Predict the structure of Cilia and flagella associated protein 53.
Amino acid sequence: LKTCFLLQRAKFPKPDKFECFVLECRRKEKERLEYLAFTKVHNRGLQVSHWENHNERRRLHGIVQKKVDQTMQEYLAGTEDRRERLRALLEAEEKSYFTEMESMEETMLEREAKMRERAKLLREKREEERQKLVALKREQQF
């Protein structure tokens, strides 16, 4: 009998089912809390990343907008310079045109002198014709 007793193995006591259930629940709750903590950290990282990307896009948009505004100002300034040069050129052309027209136009004194000269020429011509007519009549009398 003594030998039989030694041959039997010692068995562990069967685990209590309630304790196993509680341990399993605690393990699952621990996993769930770990997963929740991970998702919180992950979501926070996504938010930070989104915020940084948004700020970077806004910053780049601001830089591009400033460059566009500066280029437009330079273009408009160039356009205004061209307008000023063209305006000055137009004024110079108008002045030269008016000067030319005034030089071609007769003044009142020149016009009066011209009219006197013409009247004198007409009188001389009439007098010549009259003299010719008188000469012709005299010749006819002879």
